[in-house]
Automatic annotation (TrEMBL):
PROSITE patterns named in the record: PROKAR_LIPOPROTEIN (PS51257), TPR (PS50005)
Name of the protein described by the UniProt record: Flp pilus assembly protein TadD
Keywords: TPR repeat
Annotated source species: Pseudoroseicyclus tamaricis
TPR repeat boundaries on the chain: 36-69
Matching SUPFAM superfamilies: TPR-like
The keyword Coiled coil appears for this protein: no
Keyword Signal in record: no
Amino acid sequence: MLRAIHFTLLAGAVGLSACSQSGDAVVDRALADINVVDETNLNEVMLTVGDPTEAVSYFTRALQANPGRIDLERGLATSLVRAGRAAEGVTAWQAVTAHGEATNEDRVQLAGAMIRADRWDEADRALDAIPPTYETYERYRLEAIVADSNQEWQKADSFYEIAAGLTTTPAGVLNNWGFSKLSRGAYREAEGLFEDALRHDPQLFTAKNNLVMARGAQRVYELPVVPMSQIERAELLYTAALTAIKQNDLTIGKQLLREAVDTHPQHFEEAVRALRALEDGAA
């Protein structure tokens, strides 16, 4: 009888121990899940709003503690590029693309890092290695930039058009396409693309500035009818003035410089200096 009781108590103790161990495991798994969620959120913060230099340090430490994790490798590569360390970013993205879990998007990001590092031929080869069935905005935006650099205008136009159709926010790529046209001397087409960019994003100042240059190249120096602040108006007048001076329309250039100086709410040193040089006969 005593043996039976002892066995029963022992079995109960083992059962309690097993329950305790099982409970610990459940708690450990739950805590691990919470940590993953917290870490994921922190990773996102470091990639989007964190200081790029701090992000590089964060992902470097995280990778030392968790070597081989592709999400952390991607975070480090992205942060290096954001921090302006493009050459190191290329090396980091090469490590990502060599990972067994690498995706075509990783290969696109590698090409982008190569472009930033001025390694155009390698970027071209990296994009060529991606299957043509992988069609994304970023892939075609980079294809367009590379084609531009190679002066393959027909390909560039095709890629810009595809990229613009693959995003709901095409202002940036339309502006780039317009600048490509501007650099080729296709001023009317460039003007239309800058206007399209501003229809999608009326606040995009680079498109406003480029639009003024495209119009000025056609000797149309009046500012376009687009939303602009007082400071923007002064800066656009300055751009129009420089465009006029470049084309030897000096009287118009002087007038536009004076308007720029008068319009700017603060002291506009660049315009003042250009106007003084022009009036002194140095321009």
